[in-house]
Specification:
Length: about 160
């Protein structure tokens, strides 16, 4: 994981069986890259489904879950463009649902509720979790509130 919290191919590779058996159609490292791109699934690696690799499979599922959610919602947060104004933190209806402070127009108190989507850290917006995003959790909607209200165009929804 890099300084921004993004996962990279090496993070994925660490927990693959590393057999280079090519049962997935390639070597382990490129398979890790394909997983990150969403072009391959964990289930495409047959050894990973064997009982002895169960802990690895669980770790990889947990590691890749946020990425799958991000792909499903299409939300891309550009932290370089963000000036930390906090508009998205109070505008997102999920934040208000899980944080009394957001409902009153303030930043959520720490410890942050694990369900909230946006929070500020060191003057920048970060995504805590997007599991409850209205674009992700059924019944889904085409919510774009965060994108519409961000004054810096730092949030883009690519679908
Ligand atoms: S099937 Fe799994 S163990 Fe074999 S090369 Fe592909 S990723 Fe590696
Ligand atoms: S799309 Fe809607 S629910 Fe999802 S993060 Fe943006 S404002 Fe929140
Ligand atoms: S509304 Fe935009 S600029 Fe403001 S904190 Fe959120 S992402 Fe950053």
């Amino acid at each position: 994981m890099n300084a921004t919290g993004a996962i990279n191919a090496l993070d994925v590779y660490k927990d693959l069986p590393k057999l280079n058996c090519k049962k997935c159609g390639m070597l382990c490292m490129p398979f890790g890259v394909e997983l990150l791109k969403g072009a391959k699934q964990l289930e495409d690696c047959p050894p990973l489904l064997e009982p002895k690799y169960k802990p690895n499979l669980e770790k990889l599922r947990a590691l890749l879950a946020p990425m799958k959610q991000a792909t499903a919602t299409g939300i891309v947060l550009n932290q370089d463009a963000c000036d930390g104004c906090g508009v998205c933190v109070i505008a997102c209806p999920v934040n208000s649902r899980f944080s009394q402070e957001c409902l009153s127009g303030k930043a959520p108190d720490h410890p942050l509720p694990k369900e909230i989507i946006y929070a500020l850290e060191n003057g920048k917006c970060k995504i805590v979790s997007i599991e409850e995003c209205r674009r992700y959790t059924p019944p889904t909607t085409n919510c774009r509130i965060c994108e519409i209200y961000c004054p810096r165009y730092a949030i883009e929804i690519k679908v």
